[in-house]
Every structure is written in structure tokens, then in C-alpha cells.
Amino acid sequence: MMKRTMDETEHSRRRFLALSGAAMAVVTLRSAEATPATMNAAMREVTGAAAVRAGKVKLEVPPLVENGNTVPLSVSVTSPMTAEDHVRSIHVFVEKNPQPNSGNFFLGPRAGRAQVSTRIRLADSQKIVAIAKLSDGSFWSATTEVVVTLAACTEEVI
Amino acid sequence: MGSVLINVPKRAKRGDVIEIKTLMSHIMETGFRHTATGELIPRDIITSFSCRYNGEEIFRADLFPAISANPFISFFTTATETGTLEFSWIGDRGFSETATASITIE
After folding, report:
1. What is the pLDDT of residues B20-61, one digit of tens each?
2. Would you call B89 an interface residue with chain A, using a CB distance cutoff of 8 Å?
């Protein structure tokens, strides 16, 4: 009797996982097509009219986050970091927080390595974009999707 | 007021790329949250962080409400000379904190 109940539970759990997996795929597809205008506008403020190419930037965030209040984030850029060729700044944007800007980091050839790490808040499962500005004026980016189970910002303070 | 943790290697060889880790205690109130009675809690965050190495700025960051409470920031620099690293955090409501760390180049 007990055995059957557990089997049923396990079965429904699998079904749920399969369904949520399908739902996630749908959300991912949709957001890849329709980036909210606010994030685009915030990115344009940094890049101006310049083209942003994918590449050079590595954005490390856990793909599944339990607590959106502190999400470790690390951005590194492939660059020799010399006076002639270095990373000037790194900008992090998120799609569904109340404000798209998350952090601007300014570095220079003295950094030796173009890498910054911090912890951010995520109000929802969403897309994160990191953009790097190089000394030649070009912009490079990396994008990643994060699933958040407990969102930040929404809880009430008592 | 704020308590701070800084991790800088005490010694390094000239030309070494070293990692610097900083953590400043701060609530980082986003300004997007409400109390149970519906009142908006005003924003109270650190907005700017910078690091100077013997007076020259080597790293700077603009922080937004999306940065978690007790902001942790880590970055890299090239060890050039013996001296002092000065860290500065500036924020809402007149928040201003500084800290220093020394490094010896062998």
C-alpha cells in the first residue's frame, strides 16, 4: 500500500518535472526573441549606436538559483590587457528586475586580468547580459539564462 | 559604522596579477520594496566603489539596487610597487567608508 503511494508520488513528480521543463523551454524561446525595451534602452546608453558582437566575454552564473537575493556572478573577458589592447569597462544588465542596470565596472591595462565578480539580486528567472567595452571602442557580449526558485525584491518587510 | 572585509595578498612579486576581494556590510535597500502597510521603503544603497593603488585609481564600480546586501566585489590588478591600496564606498544618505590594505613587493 505504502509502496504504491510512493510510486504514484514519484510518477507525478516526474510528470511535473517534465512539464516544468517544457514550460521553461517556452519561456526561454520567447525571451530570446522579445528582449524588454527597458533593457535594450539601458544597453544603448552604454554602447550608443555601436554594434555589440557576441564573444570574448564569459559570464558565469549558476543556471539554477535557489535564492534570488544573492546570486554569484563572474564576468571575464579574453584580452591581453596591454596599454594598446585592454578592457575599459564591463556592464551587467538583467531583463526582469525593476531596473535593468546591475553594475558597471571600470578597469584598465593595470588590471592584468579582465575579470570581476560580485553577487546580484534576481527578481525572477531571466536573461542576464554582460557587455565589455574594449580600448578600441568595440563592444562584446555574453548572455545567459538563469532560473530562480525564490525571487528577490518581492518579499514584504514586517 | 560599516564593517569591512578586504583580502589582498600581503606579498607579491613585481608583475604578478593579484586578486583583490572586498566585502562591505550594507543593507542595500533597493527602493522597490514596500512595508506591510504599503509604504515604499526608500532606497539606501552604496552607489560607488573605487580602489586606488598608491594614489592611482585602478578600479571603479557603479552599484545598483540589483547588487546584493553586503556588496562583495572582486577584481584583479598587477602588483607594481610596495604601497597602499585605498578602498572607498560611497552611497545614499551620506554613506562614506574607506579602508586600506598594504602590499609588499619582493
Report:
1. 999 999 999 999 888 889 899 999 999 999 999 999 999 999
2. no
Please count the structural domains in chain B.
Answer: 1
Chain B nearest CA to A73, separation (Å): 10
Q: Identify all chain A residues contacting B72, using CB atoms and an 8 Å cutoff.
A: 117-119
Residues 6+ apart with CB under 8 A from B100: B84, B85, B86, B87
Q: Check pLDDT > 70 for residue A25.
A: no
Domain that holds residue B47: 4-105
- pTM, two decimals, is 0.83
Nearest to B64 among A102, A110, A114 (CB): A102
- ipTM for this prediction: 0.94
Task: At B53, list the grid cell.
Answer: 593603488
Query: CA-nearest residue of chain A to B60?
Result: A106
What is the b/e burial string over A25-62, where b = at least 16 CB atoms within 10 angstroms of the residue's CB? eeeeeebeeebeebbeebbeebbeeeebeeebbbbebe
In A, which residues are within 8 Å of B30 by CB distance? Answer: 98, 121, 153
CATH entry 2.30.42.10 includes domain A36-150: no
B48-104 pLDDT, tens digit each: 999 999 999 999 999 999 999 999 999 999 999 999 999 999 999 999 999 999 999
